[in-house]
Amino acid sequence: MGHMKLSLLIATFAGLVLMSACSPSGGAGNGNVPGDTGDSQPFAAIAEDESISLAGNEPFWGGQIDGATLLYTTPEQPDGVRIDVTRFAGRGGLSFSGRLSGQDMLLAITPGECSDTMSDTRYPYVATLRIGDDLRAGCAWTDAQPRTSNDGAEQ
Asked: Per-residue DSSP letters for 37-77?
């Protein structure tokens, strides 16, 4: 697949995920998309200099995004793999694109209560990771918007 087609595919996927995965509910709407408030501003709830932490299970994966670098970890690679990523702020969240092990990688971060299903931890963001044809679900948080336990304690 050519670079231009690949870039278009990534941009289209990121746009669809960010526009549909996080549309606010109950908004006045503009008549085009249910719940669409018509807000056209780029997502700004996570600052560009803010570090984003990631965790997913089945399969287990995690990571940390700092600037234009994602440190991607798995049980097989606990020290992680560093990936150069490009950040895109959409209407309803962020996406980060890059290449991992010769495959296209796209990560979408969208606001929404998230649980890792393995603990009583709650996260403020949903993380959706695609590596090649493999789709993985996870959760995300930042220092300013931390993960919490069900009793509300910061973790």
From this structure: ----SPP-SS-TTS-EEEEETTTTEEEEEETTEEEEEETTE
